[in-house]
User: What shape does this take?
Amino acid sequence: MSRILLVHTGGTIGMTKTENGYQPDGAYFRQAVFHMDSLKKRDMPQWDFTETETLLDSSRMKAEDWNMIGRVIADHYEDYDGFVILHGTDTMAYTASALSFMLKGLNKPVILTGSQIPLCETRSDGRDNLITSMMIAGAGKVREVCIYFGGLLLRGNRATKYSADGMQAFVSKNYPPLATAGISIHYNESAFLQRRSERFECRPFANIPIGVLKVFPGIQFELFESIIAGKLKGVVLEAFGAGNMPDDASLLPILRKAYENGTVLTVCSQCVQATVDMSAYEAGSTLRRAGAVSGRDMTTEAAVAKLYYLFSVYDDAANVRFNMERDIRGELTQKNEL
Ligand code: ASP
Assistant: This one.
């Protein structure tokens, strides 16, 4: 029988109402989980429960919190067959992306889940999300970082939060689901990450200055010069469609300055379903010539986490630029794979 570890980090699933709104409530959640009869059934894996030191609304998470979750997994890696991380939905896709890079050579399921309605409420979606995530983690078929939510198992670094209201809160428009859970759980094994025979290792992130800039019609780039070419080491530029942005005269010198400073500019799309192709339009090719790299079909969440990861591993921008366009953990589709 497999054995999994539940790690409570905060989020709506474990919150109760206070006069200032919902807040994480560790004592309540622990008690609710230990009293849930379904978790004791014979078709469930054996499990242990732990929680992070501070339970957070996930909007408060920082890179050091990702590191702490990574450390819990690494410290217990040999003791369990899989891990379920209970987490807020707001930044779940960022944490899932971060863990996917941080946990090199991962060969066990790490499933992030949570809920839109707290477990303490009658209509909570937390119960199914928790039970199904535990079954998936216990089954041990997927061996990568995933998000399970509302019937879909998605690769963590391909997922994005799409709805603040619906029970299917996450989508992965550039990559198919790894499983769908209806009456039974159907795995899409051909979409699983190919296992690499690397040794498992947790590589925590350094506190790298990273930024995200969403381009809009009429953007006056000179007003954003300090973001693009200032102190940040990595910037995700969310461009239009296939990677276009207004290439007005003020942009090029700023891009050049960023390049010379060693800032890595990564172009992602504002469209949830898109692949950046900077050679498709003249407006995009200006970016390419100025040294920006293509995020291809990566989510902004994955691009941010990848910049943290690569700058934590390499000291030089050239290596970061090269690896941003390469598939490291299934986060993007390389050009030669299309
Ligand atoms: N604000 C909450 C969080 O991300 C939202 C949720 O969990 O659904 O922690």
